[in-house]
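Supplementary notes for students who missed Thursday's class. We covered one full example, reproduced here. Read the sequence, then the structure, then the short commentary at the end.
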Amino acid sequence: MGKGDRKTAKGKRNISSYGNARTNTAKKAAVQVAVKKEPAKKAAPAKKAPAKKAATPAAAGDAAIRQSLTNVVPNVKITAIRPSPLAGVKEVVVDGQILYVSNDGKLLFQGAIIDLNTRTNLTEASEAGERRIILAAVPAAQKISFAPAKPKYRITVFTDIDCGYCRKMHEHMAEYNKLGIAVDYLFFPRAGLGSESFQKAVNVWCAPDRKVAMTSSKAGKTLPKKNCSNFVTADYSLGQKIGVDGTPAVYATNGAQIGGYLNPADMLKALEKQNK
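Structure (token representation):
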């Protein structure tokens, strides 16, 4: 990991299944029998009728999980419930974050599941998959990009104008580009919305040439204070959603976090490793 600055359907009887040997009369009789028996079905005890509509164990478990989480957080946004590596436990995606909940919805825990045989962080792999989807949906118009003519790799970097390692990374931009690495910047002012760092990000976005302004601001120059329609708040919210807690936060196109600050040569090695 590189270096960085921390954040301050109903079941109906299928008539055709009775067999092709039946005549039309026989088929009609079968329908009539079914119709005649229908009142009996309605008169059956209420608990027997839903038995045909009973949810599968998995669906019932998912419902229990949704209900339990909703009881705790009424407006919770659950985007996926799927099997986890642990028996009796589901992996639940809540607004981009990975949680683990028992099938009965009674127990919840958050943390990393490690495969000791392969020494693989299975939770991180799931989180990367979620980040890949989220970051791929960010439009090009929301980014400030420094890219070579024919990039081999792209990285998304959440940056803070006042972050020391962010500035150090930007100093090597020409080298990253020379190695075929395109850098797509999104803002993450660690001090929060409305802070001085937030305003500096807005100043960059509102400048006539954002790339020039980014370079100047990261070099310590003071830009004219500006205000315009911008994506700084959206960037910051996106960073929070995917778990950014320091800058620079660097992500490959597959959603894997590969930094922190890495010098150009190490960044290239990390990207090559992700693409093996």
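Commentary. Residues 24-43 form the longest helix (20 residues). The radius of gyration is 28 Å. If anything here is unclear, bring it to office hours.
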